[in-house]
Amino acid sequence: MIRAEGGSLEEQIALKKAKLAELRARGIDPFPARVRRGQTCAQALALGAALSDQRGTETVACAGRLVELRDMGKSIFGRLADQSGRCQVYFKKDALPESDFSLIKRDAHVGDFLSVEGVMFKTRTGETTIAACSAVLLAKSLRPLPEKWHGLKDVETRYRHRHLDLIANPEVRECFLKRSTIVSTFRRVLDERGFVEVETPVLLPQAGGASARPFHTRHNALGADMVLRIATELYLKRLIIGGFDKVYEIGRIFRNEGIDTRHNPEFTMLECYQAFADYNDMAALFEALIGECAQALKIDSVEFAGKAIKLSPPFRREFLPELWEKYVGSPIQEILLGKGFNRQRLLELAAKLGISGANKAPSAKVFERIFDARILEHLEGLTFVFDHPTAITPLAKLKAGSNGGLVERFECFVAGQELSNAYSELNDPDDQRERLLEQARQRREEGDEETDILDEDFVEAMEAGMPPTGGMGVGVDRIVMLLTGKASIRDVILFPTLKPEEGRTS
Known about the structure:
Blueprint: H1 9-25, H2 41-49, E1 55-71, E2 75-82, E3 85-92, H3 98-107, E4 113-122, E5 128-139, H4 155-160, H5 162-168, H6 170-192, E6 196-197, E7 203-204, E8 216-219, E9 224-228, H7 233-241, E10 246-254, E11 266-275, H8 279-296, E12 301-304, E13 307-310, E14 316-319, H9 320-327, E15 336-337, E16 340-341, H10 343-353, H11 363-374, E17 383-389, E18 406-414, E19 417-424, H12 429-446, H13 456-462, E20 469-475, H14 476-484
Parallel strand pairs: 3-5, 6-10, 14-17
Antiparallel strand pairs: 1-2, 1-4, 2-3, 4-5, 7-9, 8-9, 10-11, 11-20, 12-13, 15-16, 17-18, 18-19, 19-20
Helix pairs in contact: 5-6, 6-8, 6-14, 10-11, 12-13
């Protein structure tokens, strides 16, 4: 039978708190400081599986959370869980000290942490089990596990109480273990290629390196307004200028934007830069990153957004001018004017295509809406889209033969979602200043608050001389979504940003 632990949530908590007080009154420490742990649950199971006889002789010492308890009188079956998995434990009255058996029978509840020593054996049903010879309470749980109050299925509750989600849903823990594998694989691939991992500032005097709205804060000691970084790009390029050949950073980025299945205001980005390289080299590097991650996870394809996605390189390559003419119906040069947009032509095209609200939107947003409406759906599988308008890419090198209207940039898409963004980096300081001034004009005249800001310190650094460079940003969370088949970014961020609950401060 399953041991009863009360009715309502409040009654169960009261029962556990009463038991805690009783333990302390009996001189038992319910939260001891140390424990001897010799094996994980998985290691113990492996030892048991290798037994030639029904019962082993080697003593194992496991520790974990008690997730199941079945009291059968003079014998009790329990199940311990740790990060490695779950293992059954058999507590027999005449095989344990009286105090230890009493602990399991009278004092232990599902949710408590226990340390158990014993030998491995196989039950009559063939299940590998620890025959306990001692048991120690390590930590008393004061709240029931989620299963005890009808599971943990509500999405909002799962995100808000991730610790309970991890206990109740083993597949969630597995997803985040895969995330760790993906990030460590990124590091391995880059380290093996001679990249140096670095750290750059999070608090900045002004935002730069991306088109996004920053979070603002205040540094009291300096008496200065500051922002949280929206990209690591400009500092990493300074390191290329300073003599590093290859650098990368995996870090948190903050953008003051909406929340949906693909966006969280705080997310993880990999940015890497390589001197004497271009965007073609970055495309090859991105293919290596995805290919190596797929091998590490032992997969060669994945189901994502209802489609089977092949993960092995090479990925599909498309060029935006060709896609634009094919699916939008006119040459992309018609909407370009030097290094900016021909806004009149852009609005005429938007009206022709039925794009609503274009007159009040910045040119960059109108372009994005046309791309999303007419081109995005045609990008099958993992697809690179090369060569983008200069007007929306102020930090990339001009594309030869484009009359200044296009730059050497690619984005990689899958199932309508951007995964990476890469440039042949602009290294002409005069052109860089001119481009950023154009961004300022778009901000001033079109009300585009997400344009890049002129960073004179960065341009001054460029004037010291910057080699030809390839650079790339990769959305780590979105890569995890792809490789684990998750539909929402909140499923791959341990603690996603949520609206505060009413009446609570944290």
